[in-house]
Amino acid sequence: MFGSREKEGPFETQDWQNHFLVSASKQVVASNQTSPEVYVLCSGWAFRFLQLPDGRKQILSFLLPGDLFSARYLFEDRFHFSVKALTAIQVSGMKRSEVLTRVLAQPVTAAPALAKSCSADAEASEKMIAALGLCSAEERIAYLFLHLMRRIADRNVIREHRYAFPLRQQHIAEAVGLTAVHVSRVLGAFRDRGIADLSNGVLEVLNLRELQRLGSLA
Amino acid sequence: MFGSREKEGPFETQDWQNHFLVSASKQVVASNQTSPEVYVLCSGWAFRFLQLPDGRKQILSFLLPGDLFSARYLFEDRFHFSVKALTAIQVSGMKRSEVLTRVLAQPVTAAPALAKSCSADAEASEKMIAALGLCSAEERIAYLFLHLMRRIADRNVIREHRYAFPLRQQHIAEAVGLTAVHVSRVLGAFRDRGIADLSNGVLEVLNLRELQRLGSLA
DNA sequence: CGAGGAATTGATTTCCATCAATGACGGTGG
DNA sequence: CCACCGTCATTGATGGAAATCAATTCCTCG
Question: Which nucleotide is at minimal CA–C1' distance from B136?
Answer without folding.
Answer: D17
